[in-house]
Task: inverse folding
């Protein structure tokens, strides 16, 4: 018996096609910069979770009234200067920074998720503390990574439980999270370490940190890619929940259902 | 046209993986006289006309906002290139 896996790019029914789904009314914007890579995967993840995904262009000044924003992975502006450094000054980023409540954020402000390069953009924009430097191995890393959810109270993690583990892909060159010890102590003390690497630190990140949030918890950044683990047939070969079929891992889906359900209330 | 040079270096307390890799390669060339390497960036900002105090201030602003990230880097130099001044 062979396991049937869907064709790459084959049309799959997605939950948001169903008008009866209450999550369908939540509009999540996904920003595309020149050099973005995972914007379409993030759009698909939002739809698979049941929400409505809206394409946003970095050069626009209009957030189109979206309820949440995802800044996806990739190599915006070719990673020139520093990863995220030039994207930070895009017109749409100014709108996002203001709507997210600035550096400290606001629990009622726009929820924002930065994935990989999106995380780098959020640190450069001072919406999240710290910064990313080259992996301590100096290699580009691409592997399935186990994480632990350290804070299940954010907009983007409420579908998980505290301490829950997930396996999602990690792929980057500048993934080493750094911050001074005072900042790290504040992050730990305020429960703002949202994800931590488990089973070994892949890139030298301080205190095994894989993802953090702002003070209010509406802005979250994480290095690995939940949007690549949302659909059986296209995910990792493993899951933190036990054995799955080939490419059967969908541990990342909860990130997207979290924000949808939170916003529906 | 005069140029303003901006040097940016990784902060001393930040590990510099690139510098470390370069330091590891030097002995392979037989160059054993160095205890360490740190890699920074140099920017040259070309100015049209005279470098006024205002332009120099703009260069400083560029250095601290866009050209460097204060979390991981220090601006170690912002000055007009001598060779252009002559």
Result:
């Amino acid at each position: 018996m062979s396991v049937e896996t869907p064709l790459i790019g084959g049309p799959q029914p997605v939950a948001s096609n169903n008008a009866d789904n209450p999550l369908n009314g939540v509009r999540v914007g996904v920003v595309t910069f020149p050099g973005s890579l995972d914007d379409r995967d993030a759009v698909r993840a939002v739809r698979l979770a049941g929400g409505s995904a809206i394409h946003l262009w970095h050069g626009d000044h209009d957030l189109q009234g979206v309820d949440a924003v995802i800044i996806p992975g990739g190599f915006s502006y070719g990673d020139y200067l520093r990863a995220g450094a030039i994207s930070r000054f895009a017109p749409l980023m100014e709108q996002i920074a203001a709507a997210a409540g600035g550096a400290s954020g606001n629990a009622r402000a726009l929820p924002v998720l930065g994935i990989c390069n999106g995380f780098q953009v959020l640190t450069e924009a001072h919406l999240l503390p710290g910064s990313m430097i080259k992996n301590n191995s100096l290699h580009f890393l691409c592997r399935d990574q186990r994480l632990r959810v350290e804070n299940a109270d954010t907009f983007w993690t409420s579908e998980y439980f505290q301490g829950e583990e997930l396996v999602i892909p990690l792929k980057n060159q500048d993934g080493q999270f750094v911050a001074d010890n005072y900042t790290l102590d504040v992050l730990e003390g305020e429960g703002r370490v949202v994800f931590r690497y488990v089973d070994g630190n892949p890139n030298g990140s301080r205190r095994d940190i894989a993802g953090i949030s702002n003070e209010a918890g509406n802005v979250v950044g994480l290095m690995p890619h939940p949007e690549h683990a949302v659909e059986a047939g296209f995910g990792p070969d493993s899951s933190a929940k036990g054995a799955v079929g080939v490419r059967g891992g969908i541990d990342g889906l909860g990130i997207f259902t979290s924000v949808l359900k939170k916003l529906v209330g | 046209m005069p140029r303003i040079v901006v040097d940016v270096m990784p902060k001393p307390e930040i590990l510099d993986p690139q510098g470390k890799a370069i330091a590891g390669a030097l002995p392979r060339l037989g160059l054993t006289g160095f205890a360490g390497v740190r890699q920074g960036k140099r920017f040259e900002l070309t100015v049209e006309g005279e470098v006024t105090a205002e332009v120099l201030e703009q260069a400083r602003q560029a250095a601290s906002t866009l050209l460097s990230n204060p979390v991981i880097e220090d601006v170690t130099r912002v000055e007009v290139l001598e060779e252009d001044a002559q």
Q: What stands out?
A: The CA atoms of residues 138 and 173 of chain A lie 7 Å apart. The two ends of chain A are 43 Å apart (CA to CA). Chain A has one domain: 23-264. The interface with chain B takes residues 81-82, 85-86, 89, 123-124, 129-131, 133-138, 176, 178-180, 204 of chain A (CB under 8 Å).
